[in-house]
Amino acid sequence: MCVSLSQIVCPLITSSQGVTLTITCFLKDLSITQHRARSRSRLVAMGGVLLLLAGCNSLPDSGPTEAQVNQAQRNPKKNTVGYGIVQISPDLITLLDSESPALFSSLDIDNTSIDHGKNDTVGPGDVLQVSVYEVGSSLFSASSVTMAASSSSGTGTLPATSSSSTLPPVVVDGEGNILVPFSGEIHVAGMTTNQVADAILTRLKQKSQSPQVVVRIVADIANSVMVYGEVRMPSRIPLTPNRERILDVIALAGGEDHTSQSDEDYTIRLIRNGRIAELPLKMIENDPAQNILMQPGDRVQVIFQPRTFSVFGATGHITQTRFTLPTLSMAEAMARLGGPLDSRADPNAVYVFRYEKADILRRLGLPIDNDASVAPVVYQLDMMNPSNYFLAQRFMMHNRDLIYVANASSNKFYKFFNLITTIVSPGMSAGGMAK
User: Fold this and answer.
1) How far is it, in rounded angstroms, from Cα 401 to Cα 351?
2) DSSP conformational letter for 6
3) What Pfam families has UniProt attached to this entry (predicted)?
4) Which residue has the higher pLDDT, 412 or 300?
5) Domain 104-112+230-304 in CATH 3.60.20.10
6) CB proximity list for 418: less than 8 A, separation 6 or greater
7) For the packed helices 32-54 and 411-434, what is the interaxial angle rounded to 10 degrees?
8) Pick from 59, 181, 246, 299: CA 20 to 30 A from residue 78's CA?
9) In terms of DSSP H, where are the helices of 60-107?
């Protein structure tokens, strides 16, 4: 027995992505047995399609879509770090440009008033050499050296006999005192070497005939700075009355350890009186106001930190890339990646993930903890708007920024379609060969 069917229209099947499939079958005159077999085949095929559509959300992906990023930001369970999303706009660029790092000049309270004798003062830990010159009978005769009187110029005369004695090195104790034979304990902290000599001389005059005293600093601890980190010779650098600046002490420590690297990859950290400031080495070189005078007790750390940014999402490369330039804009960073992929990317949703200064985010109206110094934020750029390409040229990248290009919402459908094609193509080829 045969049945004649001209057309069968199968029920509509709609996926979670909004894709609707309509299957229309044209049949020739079939026997009941053939018809039942083919009906079972169609049911199996439709079941397979349903399973594939249901699994569309389980297809592999490189990251969230724009909608998923926005939904996650509003969901406290997913947004555990509390990031906000800010559109890149001219006002934002102006705000970011107005912000500058803590300058070294703000720490240099003596930068405009230079005391050329300040670095000649004595302090705890210094080692002094004291020399005493006497006429006639000497208090320090055990170590004296008798010198014949002479006058090379002929304009004056020296005593018939005189002696000089160099005392053993004297260390300034923690309270700023020294102990000198026949002079006792003398408080010298904060004095210059000439003042220390006068203090010793005043006490020796009562016991010695026409004494003269010369004091010099052998080991200058109080008037020094520590330079360490990525320099060739980390060391304590003594300061002189010439008043060294920060670039001077870095040079005295041998300069940068990685001379082949760009100065932009070096950061200088200055610690002064409990305050900390950091600036790129290149900024100090370009701005003389930041090449500040060193003060006793300063600590200078030279940090080698190549600046990088990372890239994820629908781009040609998922990579970590070095800046290699003093400054790098978002447009330049995107150009290095080859831009968003035409087949996968959503140009409306190009993001920069960053830990931004908290005061900037507060000015943007984002809720930030009072104690926070930095907070996470996501900057979004719509690259479908031509004017935003100008903003991308002015938006400067920071070290450790992360660029993410969101996947287009249709990306999963294309992946599903390719999967169906991969499954169906061998069967269609086999059917064609059977005919």
Assistant:
1) 10
2) S
3) Poly_export, SLBB_2
4) 300
5) no
6) none
7) 150
8) 59
9) 66-74, 90-98
Of the options 3.10.560.10, 3.50.50.60, 3.40.50.1820, 3.40.50.1370, the CATH number for the domain spanning 66-99+307-413: 3.10.560.10
Beta strands in 45-200, from DSSP E residues, in sequence order: 84-87, 127-135, 145-148, 161-166, 170-171, 177-180, 184-187
Spatial distance between the Cα atoms of 345 and 429, rounded to a whole number of angstroms: 33
What is the rounded end-to-end Cα distance, in angstroms, of the chain?
Answer: 25
pLDDT of 32 strictly over 80: no
Do residues 314 and 346 lie in contact, with contact meaning Cβ atoms separated by under 8 Å? yes
Q: H or E segment at 394?
A: helix 388-394
Domain 122-148+160-219 -> CATH class: alpha beta
Mean pLDDT over all residues of the chain? Answer: 79
CA dist 30 and 427 (Å) reads: 22
pLDDT of residue 1: 45
Q: Which of 147-156, 172-181, 235-244, 364-373 has the lowest mean pLDDT?
A: 147-156
- Domains of the chain by residue range: 2-58, 66-99+307-413, 104-112+230-304, 122-148+160-219
Residue 213 confidence (pLDDT): 92
* DSSP helix/strand/coil, 72: helix
